[in-house]
Amino acid sequence: FADQVTTVAREVGVDGKLGGQANVPGAAGTWRDLTDNVNRLAANLTTQLRAIANVATAVTKGDLTRSIQVEAQGEVAAVKDNINEMIRNLKDTTLRNQEQDWLKTNLTKFTRMLQGQRDLLAVGKLILSELAPVVPAQQGVFYIIDKSGPEPELKLLASYACREESGLKASLKLGESLVGQAALEKHRVLLNDAPSDYVKVSSALGAGRPMNIVVLPILFEGEVKAVMELSSLERFNSTHQAFLDQLTESIGIVLHTIEANTRTENLLKQSQSLASELQNRQEELQKTNLELAEKARSNLAKDQFLAMLSHELRTPLTPVLASALALESEPALPQDVHESLHMIRRNVELEARLIDDLLDLTRIDRGKVQLNFEIVDAHTLLQNALEICQAEIDRKHLRRSLNLGARKVHLRADPARLQQIFWNLINNAVKFTPSDGQISISTSNDSNGRLRVEIADTGLGIEAESLPKIFDAFEQGGRTQLGGLGLGLAISKALVEAHKGTIIAQSGGRNKGSTFTLVFPTSEKAAAQIAPAALPRLSEHHAMRILLVEDHEDSNRSLTNLLRRRGYHVQSALNCQSALELSAKEQFDVLISDLALPDGSGIDLMQTLQSKRPVLGIALTGFGMENDIRKCREAGFQHHLVKPIDLNRLDSLIQEGAAELVTA
Fold this sequence. Notes:
Blueprint: H1 2-14, H2 30-60, H3 74-114, H4 120-131, E1 139-146, E2 153-160, E3 171-173, H5 177-185, E4 189-192, E5 201-202, E6 207-208, E7 212-220, E8 223-232, H6 238-314, H7 317-328, H8 335-365, E9 374-377, H9 378-395, E10 399-404, E11 410-413, H10 415-431, E12 438-445, E13 451-457, H11 488-498, E14 502-507, E15 514-520, E16 545-549, H12 553-565, E17 569-573, H13 576-585, E18 590-594, E19 596-597, E20 600-601, H14 602-612, E21 616-621, H15 626-635, E22 639-642, H16 647-663
């Protein structure tokens, strides 16, 4: 007995060998009981330790589903319970770690997947299709916020496994349905056990109601960017819900980035478009500048050509007109010679008028007409214009009717240009009315107090098809047989409009006369001005020492002779050099000079003579442009006469200069 017990005790207690049993043949009674107790002790230890060893081995291999099930008492039971608790704790920790790993892995996956995405629609579809098997979810919709309207709205961007008859709304207002409410409150909404008729998750084989529906607002820095709704046939566990919460933050960042990139791209495109447009504008501007410069050069060339043409056309008229005027003053000439001289003078003046019309039309076309406005009496100017035409009226034996019925007759106008308008219309009426016909001139005020002037005749009239274009340049209304360029009415219309007036033409047709009606706004009569002290009249014609410089030999000879016949001391030169030589030999009171000379300019000549002593300067030129007149004034010329020269006007200017010298 002792040997058997000692062997079992040594194997179990010292050698760690389990499963040993004492075998004492013939033992009975107390010795048998002792032997059984020793064997039961060894068996219990063996069972308990082997159970613990098996579970421990399984745990070390990663199997956390095992636990120690052997019966034990006392301290062994405590050890068993502690080991089982340790396994449970290890199992929970491992599960939590696995859940965290799953969470982090999927967040990383989605972050990488969404990184670099630039299209919102592609992002919406990608999120739903990749998220459904992960959560898991069997249906989903994705709404994006739209702020383009007066109020922000949620627009349907993408959907996943939704039936056509589900009735998805394309847009939702904030606060409308759970999707709109989640966007408004910025909080997640979770539905459990939805009613059977709420929504169906379906496949080809069947359909069923979802266990869970979650509505997730997607925010960036507290601002709603989108809302996502998911439904699942299973319940979303805490890990799924935590994953969805964290994923919405990542999606919010992605949506904000796409939105910012889109704005940046749009701004870049706008910038590029503006840069391109600016470049196009600059190119157009450069092209326009080149065109304007070319046009300016062309206009300058035209101005120079017109000035030269005017000069060349006017210059030969001067000796003709001067000679005709001088001969007309000879009383001894026969009447028929007087009539011929009058005809010569009239035609030369007409030629000069035609040249003036050409220049006026050029000025009007280029906006270079300078008007000097003042308060004028329209009746006075109208009578002046009529007086100029009176000789022709008498010659053609026309009956004249003048009815100045207007009470308000003062206008703010350029007196010379307004008289030119009246003269053009009266002259046309006289010109186009056959002998023994009638012209009528009347004035009145309309209901607004405006001045109305009517000039009517019984002449050739204007055909209906010509009336709409009668005020066009070079248009003569089919009346070319009486000559003229057809510029008078075009010039008159432009001048009338420059005075804020209107002009209309009426006619019953060919040989039924015509009526031209002018309407002008009136002004209050200007306060009476103190007339300047009149220059003392000379008791006799004062002889002045005149230097005449004119390169046109006929004009030079004619003017020299005619001025000498009027008692002036005249020395003439054909060029600047001759004029300077004459001025070095004797002193002159008056310089009458052409501007365009073969070896220089009359302006330079005037400045040279003025630097030595005061001289009355009178420019004789065929240049009638405003710029020429201004240059003459700046050079010191007191007067500017446009060829052909009116000898009486020239004589008057010389005598006015003499009167000033006497007064001084």
